[in-house]
Design goal:
Blueprint (H helix, E strand, L loop, with lengths): L2 E4 L9 E4 L9 H6 L9 E6 L1 H13 L6 E6 L9 E3 L2 H4 L3 H16 L7 E4 L4 H5 L9 E3 L7 H15 L3 E5 L7 H10 L6 E3 L1 H13 L6 E3 L1 H6 L6 E3 L1 E2 L4 E2 L10 H16 L2
Parallel strand pairs: 3-4, 3-6, 6-8, 8-10
Antiparallel strand pairs: 1-2, 5-7, 9-11, 12-13
Amino acid sequence: MGLVVSHLEGLKNRPIALLDGEAFDNLDKKLLLRKPHKFSLSENVYIWGDSYADALTYPIKDALLDRNIGIVGFIRHSCPSLLGTLRNEPIRRGVDDAKKCKAFNLASFSDISKVPKNSYVVITSAYDWYESGKNRKGEPILLADNKNNSDVVISSLKKTVEALLLLDLKPIVVLTHPTFNGGEIRKSIRFRNPLMVRRSILKTQKLNQRITESMQGLEVELVDPIPLLCGVSENYNCNAYDVAAKRWIVWRDGSHLYYYGGSKLANYIASIINGS
């Protein structure tokens, strides 16, 4: 489940790193337990989200090293940082998971409300999968509290951004990045043919455009991963493997960003923060 940092927990209200289940992609659990303030400095950027946020934590931390800015994460896997929603997967995630996710987000928002004003808060949970995904009963995997599931991702994301703005914070929203077939990636690695893994990004582009339009008039920074990870694509396709760098942009599951892919987004996020 990854790195979880609660900003006001621990001795003398200093941030403390907690571990919620298995850390994602080789996070050093023992080192984190020995040095719970590893990512936290006198000035911090805050990241709030699920496992996709987890995958960005290290790249953002490294991208901000030259500014001596730390990163504090509010991260719970499979728990989108979208206020007013319920993650609806009781069979795969457990019957209590939705309640635990909601409690985690409310506690995270409470802690975030106490951070210094004008701090940057990175949000990473606006995915097309949360719009179209179904659980094992064929029900939507993300439900709105008010039972109105029309545009649940966009409406809840806007609600979350507006709540952060009311706290005089600076939201940075990471839009949807391309995902791939994990089985194809593992097969291509086995047969050493990475160029076989590609997918259309048209659906992802359309969602990102809808999100962008919904955010008009709000003081929010939007990070579009498509040009950063795929470049300019005239045929609306993206490769999971960067030929020039000889690196995969996503993990073997085809979904989560590898450090290399994450660093492309992190460097862009750092440029936003460095320009402030």
